[in-house]
Design a protein that fits this description.
Number of helices: 7
Structural class: mainly alpha
Largest sheet: 2 strands, antiparallel
Strand content: under 5%
Helix content: 55-70%
CATH topology of the largest domain: Multidrug efflux transporter AcrB transmembrane fold
Distance between the termini: 70 Å
Radius of gyration: 26 Å
Length: about 250
């Protein structure tokens, strides 16, 4: 910031504090401009903020920049945290886009592997998408937000969810292709495939339980999101997926 008046600087600091940021240091005597003929000086404010996600942070930064212009201050925001938020915000959207693309590809692959029966498209997607959306909805009540680490976690969790539903859909389809009735095909899934899916989910849940107590937020979130999504996906796969198969895959 160049040539700030004391009143404007005090106003800017109040704006920063109003966003629940903590000011660690401020100085108006740091350096002269590169031009030797210029008498303008720089004023630096070092502040900290909680990890509230890159999207919410951007809203705060934009508000501070806008209000600094009203005070006729030439403000520049910098720092490791600010740069990381800018990069992670872009990467988060790229991962989410990639996840959506993967979901669509999985649906198309299911259709192509089952003689282009388009009923497999919603059947392969709904049991995999709804658990993710339900998990995000539940966690949003407790302050969940999309971040780079959470986007990675959701991509990993989606892979685990798809693995379970693939086994059930494949077992049902193979049973029907062998000439078994709808009831016998569902019974075959219940007697064999369900057991494998349940055991896999139990192993995942108990393996991740110790990570719940990690002080590193990204690790604890990995555990919370994965465990919750695994439980919800298991409920969908055992209760609702067979009903969809019975109704649409004759």
């Amino acid at each position: 910031m160049n040539d700030p008046s004391r009143d404007n600087l005090d106003s800017l600091e109040n704006i920063i504090l109003s966003h629940n940021l903590v000011i660690d240091f401020s100085s108006d005597f740091l350096s002269k401009k590169i031009s030797q003929n210029s008498n303008s000086s720089q004023y630096t404010i070092k502040a900290r903020m909680q990890d509230i996600g890159s999207s919410k942070s951007k809203i705060i930064f934009d508000d501070i920049l806008m209000k600094s212009k009203d005070l006729q201050l030439d403000l520049e925001i910098a720092g490791v945290g600010f740069l990381f938020d800018k990069i992670s915000n872009k990467m988060t959207f790229e991962i989410i886009f990639g996840l959506l693309l993967a979901i669509m590809i999985i649906g198309i692959v299911f259709v192509s592997l089952n003689n282009f029966n388009w009923y497999y498209f919603p059947i392969s997607l709904i049991p995999n998408i709804l658990p993710l959306l339900t998990t995000i909805g539940i966690l949003s009540v407790f302050g969940f937000y999309f971040s780079l680490s959470n986007a990675f976690i959701l991509a990993i969790v989606f892979g685990l969810i798809v693995d379970d539903s693939i086994h059930i859909i494949n077992a049902y389809s193979l049973s029907r292709n062998r000439g078994l009735s709808i009831a016998d095909s569902v019974s075959h899934c219940q007697n064999y495939t369900y057991k494998a899916v349940i055991k896999t989910s139990i192993v995942i849940i108990f393996t991740l339980l110790p990570l719940l107590f990690s002080e590193f937020k990204s690790i604890s979130q990995l555990s919370i999101i994965t465990i919750l999504a695994a439980i919800i996906a298991l409920i969908f796969d055992i209760i609702y997926l067979p009903k969809m198969l019975i109704k649409y895959i004759k």
